[in-house]
Amino acid sequence: MICPICKLDKPTISSAVIDGTYYSKRCDACLGLRVQKPTNTAREFDRNRQRKDFAKDIVQGMVNGKPNADFLKAYPDKAKERFTEQEIRNMQRNISN
């Protein structure tokens, strides 16, 4: 049987599903030479950029029952509403060390 891709007479012509794509009537050599999908698509790049841009949106005020210093850095105004002056001083002291 002749492979429709390489046009050579090959003894083993088969079909396969590889990475969710159906390849019909190809020889084993042509199945091995399939086109690789790009790894870093625009969607992945956009998602990574959004994770960086909006990273502070997921910062929590308390972590394991203790005040989070990253919350103080990200939201200094909200930290004054949420924590006591003593807790803020302790967090600032820990940040500077």
- Assign an overall shape: rod-shaped
Beta strands, count = 4
Largest sheet: 2 strands, antiparallel
Strand order, largest beta sheet? 1-2
Give the helix proportion (percent range).
40-55%
What layout of secondary structure does this protein have?
Layout: E1 13-18, E2 21-27, H1 28-32, H2 42-53, E3 62-63, E4 66-67, H3 69-74, H4 76-82, H5 85-96
Antiparallel strand pairs: 1-2, 3-4
Quick description:
This protein is α+β, with helices and mostly antiparallel strands and 97 residues long. Helices cover 43% and strands 18% of the residues. The chain contains 5 helices and 4 strands.
Structure description:
- There is one protein chain.
- The protein has 97 residues and is of the alpha+beta class.
- 43% of the residues lie in helices and 18% in strands.
- It contains five helices and four strands; from the N terminus they run E-E-H-H-E-E-H-H-H.
- It has helices at residues 28-32, 42-53, 69-74, 76-82, 85-96; strands at 13-18, 21-27, 62-63, 66-67.
- A two-stranded antiparallel ribbon has the order 1-2. Strands 3-4 form a two-stranded antiparallel sheet.
- The longest helix is centred in the middle third of the chain and has 12 residues, at 42-53.
- It starts with 12 loop residues before the first strand and ends with a helix.
- The model has no long low-confidence stretch (mean pLDDT 77).
